[in-house]
Structures are given as C-alpha cells and as structure tokens.
What does this fold into?
Amino acid sequence: MIKRDLYYERIPTKSLREDVRFLGNSLGNVIKEQEGKSFYNLVEKIRKLSKANKIQKKSYKKISSEIKSINPKNTYKLARAFNHFMNFINLAESIDASRQLNQYENKRDGKNQKNIFIEEIFEKLFKNKKINNNKIYSFAKNLNIGIVLTAHPTEVKRRTLIQKYHKITEILEERELFKDHALKIKSLNKKIHDEFTIIWNTDDLKRSKPSPADEARWGLAIIEDSLWETIPKVYRRLNDIFLKNMGKGLPKNFNPIEFGSWMGGDRDGNPNVTSKVTKEVLLLSRWEAAKLYEKELTKLIRSYSMKKCSKKIQKLTGKSFEPYRVFLRPLRDKMRFTHRAIEQFIVNKKPLDYNNLLNSKEEILKPLRIVRESLEENQSENIASGELLDLMRRAKCFGINLAKLDIRQESSRHSQLINELVKKKDKLNYLKWSEKDKIKLTDNELIENKLLEIKEKFKSNQITTIDNFESVFNEDETIIFLKENLGLNRIYPAGSLFTDPKFKYHGIESVGGYHPAKFGHYSELLKNTNNLLSIPVLQFLNVKYFISPVEISHPKLILEKESVFQSVNGRKKVYIYNLDQSNPRAWFVKDVIKEDQNLYNYLNASAFNPSKTAIVDKLDDSRYTIGKILNIDWDVETIIIDYEANEKGLLVLSEIYYPARWKAYIDDSEVEVFRANSVLRAVEVKAGTNKIIFEYDNGLFNILHTVSNLIVLFMCFYLLKPKVMVLLKNFR
It folds into this structure.
C-alpha cells in the first residue's frame, strides 16, 4: 500500500462535497438577493458550462463567447462571484483536511491509533537502537530554533475578509459538531447567510500601498491568530513523547523557539523605514503583547480561586481567601496599563510614562515562577503544568515584543560604523584598508570585543544615529538642482551613488536605485553593459544628468556643475554632467535591426545611435519614416502621446517593456507593443495626426484576464475530481 500524505491531499470525501455544495448554494442565494435573478442566472450559466466542458470540449468556446458578450460591470461581479466561491472551497478543504487528520490520529475504537508529524519523527528516533535515548533527550533539550518574519508580505486580501473567512470556518466546524440538531443547524445556516451578505458588500482589495507599520500589524496578527496558541501545544506534545518513551518530561524551562522580525527594521534601501517607524513598530508590538498577556492573566485569575499557598505569597497578600488572585492582579493591571498607555500614545499622542510600562519579560516570569513554586509545594503540580506553564513558555518565546526586531542596514553603513570605531581607537581609516585587512580585523579584534570597549561618547557628526537618520533625506544642493532642471528625464548615479535611495525619496527618476524585485530583462541589461556604463544605453534610457563622486573626462559628458550631496554614507562632493544627445522620453526611429545574439554588442558599441536605430525583437530589418512628437501627458498609469507622421512609423518609448500589464491603443484599438533595445517599448503607428495611449491594465482588461483564470480553475476542479477519486481507490 502506498502511504498517503493526509495533510497535503485534499481528498473529496462525502463531508467535503456536502460542505462545498452548501457553501455554493448559500453564496448563490446571497447573489440572487443582492444582484437580482438575472445576474444569478448568468453565474449559474457559466458554472454549468464549465462543468459540461469535461464532457463536451466545445463548451470552452461557449464559455469564451459568453464572457466576451458580458458588459464590464457584470464581468467584474462575475469575477468576484467565482473568486469568493474558490475561497470558500479552500475553507472547506482545510476543514476537511483537519477532520481527516483528527480521525487519523484519534480512532474511535482506540485501535490502530497513528502518530504523525512531531510524534512520528521522535518515535522513529526512539526505535533506532543505534541512538541512545539520553542523546535524544539532550538533543531535544538543547534545540535552538529561530523563526524570522520578513518584511515582504504577499497577502493581497484585506484582513477584514480574512477575519470573515475565519468566522465562516468556525461556523462550518460547528455545523459538523451539531449536524444532528436541526434547530442549531438552522441558526448556523442563518449566520453563514449573514456573513456571505457582508462579504459580498465588502471591497475585496486594499486600495493603498501598505506602510512598514501596516506590514508589522500583519506580522503581529499572524502571531495573535495562530502562533500564540500553537507554541504551547507543540511543547506539550513534545513533552508527552518523552514521558511515554523515557518516563520523564522535558525541563520546565524548555523553550527552543524564538521569533524575529524585519518588519519596521528593514532599512536596506528602504527610506520609508525611519527611526520614527521603528519606534512605532516596537510600541505596536509591545501593545499587542500586553493585550495578549492581559487576556491570559485574566483567565488565570478567574481560575485560581484556591486558598492554600506558599509562605512567600502569603507574606505578600496577607490573610486572603484568594491569595493567587490577589498576587496576580498587579501583574495583570500592569499589562492593562501598558496596553492602554501605548494606545493613547499612538492614537491621541499622549506622552508615555516608560517607567511604568512593561519593560522586560522577567517582569512576567518572576511572579509566575513564584506561583508555580507555590502550587508545587501544595500538591498542585498538575495545575502548575497546565495553563500557567503555557503562559510561562509564551513569555519566554515571545517576550514583551512578540518578536525580536532585526535592524537590517545596507553594508556601507556598517563599514562607516566600524571606521568610526577604528578611528577612535587607533586613528586609522578602515575604509581604505584592503579586504584582507578588514577580514583580519573581524577575525582577531571585533570578535574579542576590543573595538567595543570604547567608553567615550561619539560626537553627533561622527555616526549617523537612528535619531538623525531622517536628516540624511533632507533636500541638499544636488536634489534642489535636479528638481529644478531635470524635467521628464532621468539621472544616472555612478559608483557608490547607484543604489542610493535618496533620489527616489525625492521623486527623481533614476536608472539605478534599489528594489528587491527587478525585471529579468533589465537585470540582463545591467549585467551585459557593466551596470549601464555605455553611452548609447544611457541615451536611450532618457538620462539627462550623469552624477559622479569623481571627475570624469568623456566627450559625451559635459560638466554642468559641482555640487554637494548628502548620501547615506555621508556628505560628499559630486560632479553633475550633462549627457550630450540624450534621447527624450519618446521618439521615432528610421532604422530597425531584428534582435539576435549580437544584441549587447550593438548596445555597447559607441557607433550605435539610438536616436535613429532600434533593435526590436519581433520585427525584421526595415526602414520607417521619422514622425514628430507633438505632446506627452504623463501619469502613473496612463501615458498619452500626440504624434504626427506622413507615413507608417515606429515610435520608441523609454519605459520598461511589460506586455502583461502595459497595453497600447490607437483609435481605441489595441496595438502590439514590441521590445526594443532589450528593455524598452516600441509601437508601429499609422500615418496622420493621432494619439497613442499606453495604459496600465489595472481595470477592466485585468478583470477579464482574472475571470478567464478563475473559470479555468473552476473547470479544472470538476475535471480533476473523478481522476482524484480513481487515484485514491488505487491507494487503498
């Protein structure tokens, strides 16, 4: 028999099919109520056509034809209908997977009970005669696991909707529990209907770019919604394994897992992560932690009504009939104060009394240890090993900020810091050392903390601290000049300035900068042109100014002015050169060369003139008539170019080629966009005076694409269902 992975397989059980049918019918009823019977019939028609496709292949054409005939408004609503349905199917599958896992682990008759995941791993270790059990115990005791939440969230759904999906999951689980109780089921079905109605009338997508603080809130939500409950459960399961196999549990201070986070601390090229943001995120995380601890302490206080306690607690509480409650209330009140004080600071800007806030996890652990010792003294070790131990393990794992905040910084900032340390200690310039000498310092001195023994305070101008970090991004002489003179052009920052985020911060278009995600063809251009150090490349990239930290002598570079630039690496003199014969943002070319393996040889050749010639991926060698650009209107999602041409021409736009999202239109008809000079857009235009509209596909056209994908997924679900069932039979 082939072993199946019960977690990853979504087995179409009877229960799963019933849940999917119920959710589909409930959604259909809501759509009928909210949008009318006519639209409901349209949804049903598309759904039935998709099901029929597995029998009649011609149905796909019918689906395609049907969708093309739908008006944009209904197309959007249709996309939403299928999107919600697919999400609800995912919920049903998750619940069914959980249901199967429970059945797999907990047989009703107690026979053939299976262990999975953690238990299975350790059971195999204990059965391995080559490994001593004490070694396994030592291994487990010394586990050290660091889990980091990064600063690149990918969740596009609003948290509001995710919370709604979570509530629906809870209702579905209740329906399973009370499936034989008609009145209860009726009540739960009403709740589902209400939730679906709210979801249908809720905007699906975020309408603004998330800030670093928003990213942090998402990370904190993950901890609150999942990890907070999961961590003590994992520890308890591990402890039970060792009790079963060795007769002893893991140490009470067992706490191998710690969480870290980049959210609010990732400064690597992101000017939006400032000292203010970092402070806000740290306070937000402490606010969330205090709220969670307050909740758990309240549960303990309500539960711990016992009278017998240790002398230590009795001494602190006096003659109380409920000493544990009296003892724990000040700790709970401190959590409450911390939570409310930070909230008032963030919302109403009320000053914070840091001395009275929760400031260390030891403030939580110390009183909890006293409670645990008291319970153990009074024959209540089982109580001490319950919710109290869970809370102590949470405190050790999550601390007062739920996750340690990693401050990530671009490497040159670290070099600057070490340089200041070396200058202070040995009067040497670390930045001028060879790589070999830098490594030697790291190996021999820094590890031994010799550099960090300096006790004198640094002057404010020696190191850029967190508090004055934002001042780096203030306007300086160079920024002011560029804002006044750049126009609809770009700059090329040379050398160490290439990845400097300051230009982007001030809205200055640069062919450099930093971004964690780059287009593949742009990366190829960087790679094959020595980071764009080719005059023709700079020309067709619409570069007007060449900014250099050193003087340059080149016939195509004319010195405009010497200036001062405050970079992230310090204040420095720069030279601003005007690039001769730079191309405008859009222009016509006369000659076309078909792209081949010699592409970058052409682009790097000094004889290549991008004003007259373009290298295009899909067009054969040919000649065009030079037209005239009359006007350009420019915004983030739309570019409108008025042109005049006597005959057919080829217009080149100095913008990144991205056909999946940027479309081109002439007379309201879409025209093909070609890739020119490796990274740019080119369009064939007809004779006459006309407009070319480049439009980012963020609306109706994107919706049509989304609908087609959703319908394909919908069809696949029904197509694959019988095949999955056949496979499962073979496994049995």
Observations:
- The first strand starts at residue 145 and ends at 149.
